[in-house]
Amino acid sequence: MPKKVLIADDESNIVMSLQFLMEAAGYEVRTVADGEAALQVLREFRPDLVLLDVMMPKKNGYEICQAMREMPALQGTKVVMLTAKGREIDAEKGLALGADAYVTKPFATKDLVAKVKAMLGDT
Amino acid sequence: MAQRAKAKFAFVLLGSLALAFSSAALVSTAVWAGLGSQERATLSAAVTEHAGPLMGLAVALLGGHWILLWLLFEKYVAAPLALAQGTRLLTHGNPSYRLEQVGGSEMRELARAINALADEHEALGREVEARIADAQKKVHEERDRLAAIISEATQAVLVCNLEGRILLYNRQARQLLGHAAGASSAVAEAGLVGLGRSVFAILERSLVAHALETVQARLAKATPSSVASFVTATGGQLLRVHLAPVLRGARGTPDAEDQTDRGSGESTITGFVLRIDDVTKAMQAGSRTEAVLQALTDASRRALANIRAAVETLLAFPGMELETQARFVRVIHEEAAALSATIDRTAPDRTSLSSEWLLEDMLGADLVSAARSRIESTLGLSTVLDAIDPAVWLRVDSYALVRAIVSIAARLKREGVRELRIALQPAGRRAHLDLVWSGAEVATETLARWEDQPLETNGELVPLTLKQVVERHDGAVWYQASRASTTGFFRLVVPVMEAEQKPLALPVTARGRPEYYDFDLFHQAGQTPELDERKLVGLAYTVFDTETTGLSPSDGDEIISVGAVRIVNGRLLHQEAFEQFVDPRRPVSLETVRITGIDPALLAGKPPIDQVLPQFHRFCEDTVLVAHNGAFDMRFLQLKEAVAGVRFTHPVLDTMLLAAVIQPNLPPTGLEGIAERFGVPVLGRHTALGDAIMTGEIFLKMLPLLAEQGIVTLRDAREASQRTYLARAKY
Nearest CB to A66: which of B306, B430, B444? Predict the structure, then answer.
C-alpha cells in the first residue's frame, strides 16, 4: 500500500508540479487549496506526510500545524512547511509550532523529493 | 601672636635680670666669705659711704639691660612677625602689597628679598590672568562659531558636557523639547531646555549612559563611526536621539578619518552632542516601505518556486505526455509574466525604500516596564513580572512594540483574562518576550486573527498590524493556548543588541565634601509619629542636592544651584524635577568653576537664595528629604532659612548613612563610590540635578536591601542611620 501525501497550497501552479513529482515518486496524493479544507481532508485521509504552504486562505499553515499537534490521530504525520517567507525566524517559528521540516521557496525539486523520501523512510 | 611674643619677651627679660642678680649675689657672697673680719668692716663702711652712686650704677645697669633687650625685641622679634603678616596678606589677599622695611638690617634685607619675590609673583599672576582671559575669549569665539553652526541645523541639537549640563542648544531643540511632557513647578516656568540645565530632565539618564558606553566601546575598537543612537518616547512624541562624543585630544570631529588618534584609545570623552529628531511620523512611512519590500520578496519567491518546480519536473521527466508538457510550459509562462508585472508595479515605490526607520537600542526591562505601565494605566489589567533578565538590551522600535503589547493585552482582557504575566529571556541573538495568561479560554483561531488586525490601544486604532510590527523587527510572534488548562502565552521574538559593550570608564573627579556632623539630622521638627510608622516604599521623597561656592557655609559660602527630583511609589519621576540656579552675590572661586563647570556669568541675574528657597520649599512639601551627606546640604539650607522665611522641618534620610547601615564593614566613600557599589551608572556628576537623580537611583536600590535587614518604616531607617552615625562619631 503506497504512503499518502497531502499537498496543501493555494497556488495551483506549484501544486501541479508537486503532485506530479510525488506521484512519480510512488505516493498516493491528494491536494487542497485552503486551510479549512486541509483540516478536513487531514482527518479523513490521514496522510503520512503533509506539504504545507504557510500562506493560505482561511487558515494559515502555522494554525494547521498547531491544530494537527492537538489531534492524537495525526501525531505520526510528518509536516513539511513550504513558504515564501525566507527568514530564519519564520523557520524557527514553524519548528516551534510542530513542523518537522521547513523548506523555503524557491527550492530544488530534487532536494524536496529526497527530503520527503527520507522522512518517510523510503531511501 | 604679638601678645605671645610680648609675654615671651617679658619672660626673657625677667629671666636675664634674675640671672644677672643671682650671679652678682653669688660673686658678692663668695668674695664676702673670703674676707677677714677687718676687711669686711672696711668694705661695708665703703659701701655704706658710697651707697648713693652704687644704687645709681645698679639702676643704670638694669635700665641699660632692659633697653638693650627691648631693642632686640623690636628689631628681631616684632619685625619678623610684621614681615610674616605682610607676606600672608600679599599671598592670600593683595598681591600688589609690598612689605615695609622695618627692624634690623638683616630684617630689612629679608623684607627686600620678599618684596622681590612678590614682584615676580604679581607679574606671574598677571600673566596667568591674561592667559586665562585670552583662553576664555578663544573659547567664547569657538562657542559663538559653534552656536552659529548649530542654529542653522534643521534638527534639534544640544551640546552637553559629560555631566549632562547643557552648554549650547538651538531654537529647534527648544521647540521640540520645550513642551515635552508635563514638567512641574520651576522647571515648567523656565522651560526644560536652558543653558546650564541638566539634560537629564529631558532624557532618561540610563539611556544617555548606555549610549555613552556604546560610543566608548566603539572608540576603543576604532570603529569608523563612534555615534550611538536610541529612541525614547516622551510626552506622546517619539524621539530618535543620536549621540556623538566630544573628544579631548582628537583633531576634528570623531567622524574624521584620523584613525591613529582614535586607535590609541587615548582620547577621553569630555562631552557629547545630541541630535534629536521627532520620528513620530517617520514611523508610518517606514512601515509602508517595509511592507512593500516584504511583499516584493514574498511574491518573487513564490513565482520563482513555481517556475523552478515546473522546469525541473520537465527536465526530470523528458518522456512526459505532450499535453502535460504543454501545461507545465504554460505555468512557466504565466508565472514569469506575473512576476514581471509585480516588479513593474512595485518598482516606482523603490525610491521610497530608504531606511528611514531604524531600530534602536533599549534596555529590555525598560521596554517591559513601559508596556506594563501602559497596560495598567489604560486597561486596568493587572500585570506581574515573571523572569525578566535585567541585562538584555533589545534592538527595537520601542514605540510600535509597546503598542503591540498593549494591543494584545487589550484583546486578552476582552477574552476574560484577568492577569498577565510578562517574562523576558535572551535566546541567542534574539530575546523572547512572553505574555502569559491563565484562567481564560482563548481559541487559537481567535489569536490568529489578531495578527492581521490593526493594533488598538484604548479604543484607538493604529494603522499597523501586529504582524507588521513583528516583521519590522525581523522577529516573529506565536502563541500557544491550551483549552484544557485555560492557559496560554504569546511569544514575541525580538532581536537583541549586538554585543560590543565594555564597562563604562568615565573619568571620575575626586572631591571630598567634609562630612558635616554639626547639623542634627535626627531631630527634625517635621518628624511625626504617623509619618514615622509609614513604610519606606510608600512614601513620597524629594531627593536633592546643592552646589555651593565652597565648603564652609558659616564662612560665607553660598548655594549656587539646587536640584531635586521626586520619588513616588518607588519610582523616580524624571519629569518631576526642580532645578534652579542661584545668584550667590559673591565671587565664585576658580576651583568651584572647575568642579561644577558653572560659568559665573551664568549666575548673574539669577534669583537670589531668598527667592529660590521658598520655591524649593513648595516643591518639597509633604515629602521626606533624601540627600547624600545630607547634613552638608541641610546646614546650607538652615543658614538661609531666616532670610528666605521658610523652615525645612522635613524628615531627612541620608544615603551616606544608609550605605553604612547596609554595608557596615565597607569604608565610607563618596557618592561615586556608593553608586558603583549599588550598580548605578556614574554620570552627570556635579550638577545639582544630576547628583540628585543619581542619589535617587541609589536610594531606590537601597530600599529592598534595607527591607532585608528588617528596616521597613521611616522610623526604622532613621534609627538605624542614627545608630551608625553615633558609631562613626565615636570612632
Answer: B444
Which stretches in chain B have pLDDT values below 50? Answer: 181-190, 250-265, 349-356, 500-512, 516-517, 730-731
Let me know: does B461 contact B467? Beta carbons within 8 Å: no
B481 Cα to chain A: minimum distance (Å): 10
Identity of residue B444: T
Whole-number Å distance between alpha carbons of B657 and B720 = 9
**Do the Cβ atoms of B448 and A21 come within 8 Å?**
no
Contact B310 A85 (CB under 8 A): no
CA distance A2 to chain B (A): 21
Which residues of B does the annotation mark as catalytic?
A: 686
Backbone angles phi, psi at B237, to 5 degrees: -100, 150
How many H helices and E strands in chain A? 5, 5
Q: pLDDT of B654-669, one tens digit each?
A: 998 888 888 877 776 7
Q: What is the pLDDT of residues B689-709, one digit of tens each?
A: 888 999 999 999 899 889 888
* Closest-CA residue to B212 (of B274, B277, B165): B274
> Is the model's pTM score more than 0.80?
no
Q: Measure the CA–CA gap between B680 and B671, rounded to whole angstroms.
A: 10
ipTM: 0.76
**Count of Cβ atoms closer than 10 Å to residue B4 Cβ:** 9
Question: Which cell numbers hold the place of A32?
Answer: 487542497
B623's grid cell: 515629602
Nearest Cα residue to B410 out of B471, B467, B454, B470: B454
Contact by Cβ (8 Å): B656, B666: no
Please list every residue in chain A whose beta carbon sits closer than 8 Å to the beta carbon of residue B493: 89, 92-93
